[in-house]
């Protein structure tokens, strides 16, 4: 078990407070009545089988979707349902599929992430006045600092598309950090990585937490998530099934059953599964009867 994990005092500030979040797409309820909090200093994991609603829930937190029901608060304030306003408020994210500007340099990609923190307006930019130049220099310095933090300072002028896969993932994180977030949402940060790259990512996330940024992370790699997180929540068919310490969640037979696809009493969708199984059993009996 991870020894670097800090214990979060009960009194720690609640950074994220999502309550009763439901998201429906027509007849499909992708997320149903999910409550989740993240406190200052915490790394929280969100797990669940494919299609459980994890990314949809992230999209509800970041203003990409307006939840059908429920509220999302960041440091006590209800978030506006617009991605750039959510970023401005202090939540940054990365995506499941890398979304870098492939033909821009590594440094330029990080600078793009700074734009919500740059106050200089259009006229100032066009006239390139002293205010603009000062802001530009400050953004440049901050971007270089972040590249140093993730270890890509020597590749600042490389095109993003020429970076190895692991470095592209790191660059996405640096771009998210450029908006000076208080909460970072990571959607499958180690997808497609080899064990060595996964280990580096783990260390990077601990370092981000140590910078005072709370982290909420979706991941399928259980070893990674249980080693990294202070708390883990498991979604199954849009509902939060279990939440607790990595030890509790790991030992919960409902989580194991959800991953192995074994229905259990009270599981979301268990009634439907039972109906299908009963119908299948019935048709098998009939077929056997007919061939005799
Ligand atoms: N924009 C959309 N319109 C309609 N249905 C959607 C939309 N986005 C997601 N869904 C559906 O909502 C459900 C949850 O999908 P989601 O991508 O959130 O799951 P997930 O847990 O992130 O899965 P994975 O681990 O495979 O990424 C799925 O049934 C998916 O098909």
Account of the protein in words:
Keywords: ATP-binding, Nucleotide-binding, Transport. This is ABC transporter ATP-binding protein. GO terms for molecular function: ATP binding. Residues 16-262 form the ABC transporter domain. This protein is α/β, with parallel strands linked by helices and 292 residues long. It folds into 2 domains: 1-90 and 181-287, 3-Layer(aba) Sandwich (Rossmann fold), CATH 3.40.50; 102-178, no CATH class. The protein has 11 helices and 10 strands. The protein has helices spanning 54-61, 83-89, 106-113, 122-127, 130-150, 165-177, 195-210, 222-228, 246-251, 253-260, 270-291; strands at residues 14-25, 28-39, 43-47, 69-74, 77-78, 91-93, 183-187, 214-218, 231-236, 239-244. The strands form 2 sheets. The chain has a 6-stranded mixed sheet with strand order 6-7-8-3-9-10, with helices on both faces. The protein has a 4-stranded antiparallel sheet with strand order 2-1-4-5, covered by helices on one side. β9 (231-236) and β10 (239-244) form a beta hairpin. α5 packs across α6. The chain starts with 13 loop residues before the first strand and ends with a helix. The model is unreliable at 1-9 (pLDDT under 50). Bound molecules: adenosine-5'-triphosphate (ATP). Adenosine-5'-triphosphate binds at residues 25, 28, 30, 48, 50-56.
């Amino acid at each position: 078990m991870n020894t670097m994990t800090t214990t979060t005092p009960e009194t720690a500030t609640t950074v994220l407070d999502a309550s009763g979040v439901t998201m429906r797409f027509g007849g499909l309820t992708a997320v149903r009545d999910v409550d989740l909090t993240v406190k200052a200093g915490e790394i929280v994991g969100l797990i669940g089988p494919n299609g459980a609603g994890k990314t949809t829930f992230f999209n509800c937190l970041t203003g990409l979707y307006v939840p059908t029901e429920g509220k999302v608060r960041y440091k006590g304030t209800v978030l506006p349902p617009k991605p750039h306003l959510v970023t401005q408020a202090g939540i940054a994210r990365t995506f499941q599929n890398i979304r870098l500007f492939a033909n821009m340099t590594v440094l330029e990609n990080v600078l793009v992430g700074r734009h919500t923190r740059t106050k200089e307006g259009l006229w100032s930019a066009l006239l390139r006045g002293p205010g603009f130049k000062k802001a530009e220099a400050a953004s440049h310095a901050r971007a270089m600092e972040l590249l140093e933090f993730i270890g890509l300072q020597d590749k600042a002028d490389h095109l993003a598309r020429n970076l190895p896969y692991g470095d592209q993932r790191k660059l996405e994180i640096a771009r998210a950090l450029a908006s000076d977030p208080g909460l970072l949402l990571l959607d499958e940060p180690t997808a497609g990585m080899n064990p060595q790259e996964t280990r580096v990512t783990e260390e990077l996330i601990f370092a981000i937490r140590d910078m005072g940024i709370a982290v909420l992370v979706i991941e399928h790699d259980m070893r990674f998530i249980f080693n990294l997180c202070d708390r883990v929540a498991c979604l199954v068919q849009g509902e939060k099934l279990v939440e607790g310490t990595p030890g509790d969640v790991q030992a919960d037979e409902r989580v194991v059953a959800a991953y192995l696809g074994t229905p259990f009493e009270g599981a979301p969708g268990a009634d439907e599964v039972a109906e299908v199984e009963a119908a299948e059993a019935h048709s098998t009996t009939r077929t056997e009867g007919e061939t005799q």
